[in-house]
Design goal:
Blueprint: E1 6-10, E2 14-20, E3 34-40, H1 42-53, E4 58-65, H2 69-78, E5 81-88, E6 94-100, E7 106-111, E8 131-137, H3 144-160, E9 164-167, H4 171-177, H5 179-185, E10 191-192, H6 196-203, H7 211-218, E11 224-228, E12 234-238, E13 241-246, H8 261-274, H9 279-293
Helix pairs in contact: 1-8, 6-7, 8-9
Length: 307
């Protein structure tokens, strides 16, 4: 890869409602929390982190509702991303409620709204003009219309010789769709960026199996696999071999919210690759971005606007 071309991300834009609570949730009564409404979405977050950490132009194709389209567009532009937001005439922007506990781990409640209503009609071949890489958010593969759009984009990129990466996005949604169905859909991608749970699920391995084994197995299907492991860092596997173990970067400030750490890793990894770094160095760049992400609320780099 070179720094000459743009990064095109096709994915999701959602509104995040992040509730950080230091005490356990109290059923049937109140629990004190710090609540913020922020721009989010795995695809959009990754695009923002790529723009923040790299020098390449970053583009984003996504679908939003009328009620928050201008807010989301402004937030993306302010983050250095060139958005192409399709306004859905029926559904509002997707919303994710993130419950973040004292340990900074999060639980999501997800209403996909407009985000998974992307369809082939939203695609334009010109989106790939000057692009050096296409990244697809895995959430696209979990609904019929957005999955069809993802396949159109993937085929178009392959025809032009543009490399493609995919972030599987959600172990729960992967299980519902079926791992084999997902792997068949992303055939032709050159890079897969799962977390540990997603890697084991896609490799067909039981919980507790070594993640290195899962990474190597997946890299026989997708040439380059980078598995994020949270505090344990990341693994890099290429064509059936484990080629690197990258330690997690240490955050410079207290950890407050793990939301978006994987998206930060993905965005920085892709930006680094576009600048010519090898997979190991790119994984280190991803780990540094993830370490910054977990010290702030929400999934975007600092400066994202809240409502």
């Amino acid at each position: 890869m070179t720094a000459a071309g743009a990064l095109l991300v096709v994915g999701d834009v959602v509104t995040d409602v992040v509730a950080v609570h230091t005490e356990p949730l109290a059923p049937a009564t109140d629990t004190v929390a710090r609540i913020r409404t922020l721009p989010g979405g795995a695809g959009a977050n990754a695009a923002c982190w790529a723009a923040r950490t790299g020098s390449a132009e970053v583009r984003l194709l996504a679908r939003v509702g009328t009620e928050s389209a201008r807010w989301h567009e402004r937030a993306l532009v302010d983050a250095g991303v060139r958005p192409r937001l399709v306004i859905d005439p029926q559904e509002p922007t997707g919303t994710v409620v993130a419950l973040v506990g004292k340990d900074a781990e999060r639980t999501f409640l997800t209403d996909s709204g407009a985000s998974l209503r992307l369809c082939p009609a939203d695609w334009a071949p010109s989106l790939l003009d000057g692009a050096a890489h296409l990244h697809l958010s895995g959430y696209l593969f979990f609904a019929a219309s957005s999955r069809e759009l993802a396949l159109v984009a993937l085929r178009a990129a392959r025809t032009r010789g543009v490399p493609v990466s995919v972030d599987p996005a959600s172990a729960g949604f992967l299980a519902a769709l079926g791992p084999q169905r997902f792997l068949d859909a992303v055939a032709g991608a050159g890079l897969l960026l799962p977390n540990e749970d997603e890697a084991r699920l896609l490799a067909g391995l039981p919980e507790g199996s070594g993640v290195a084994r899962a990474a190597m197995a997946l890299s026989r299907r997708v040439p380059l696999v980078v598995v994020t492991r949270g505090p344990a860092g990341a693994l890099v596997a290429e064509r059936g071999r484990l080629t690197a173990e990258v330690a997690a970067a240490q955050p410079a400030e207290p950890v407050v919210d793990s939301t978006g750490a994987g998206d930060a890793f993905t965005g920085a990894f892709l930006a680094s690759r576009l600048e010519g770094a090898d997979p190991t160095e790119s994984a280190r760049a991803g780990s540094r971005a993830a370490a910054r992400a977990i010290t702030r609320t929400g999934g975007r780099p600092s400066g994202a606007s809240s409502k």
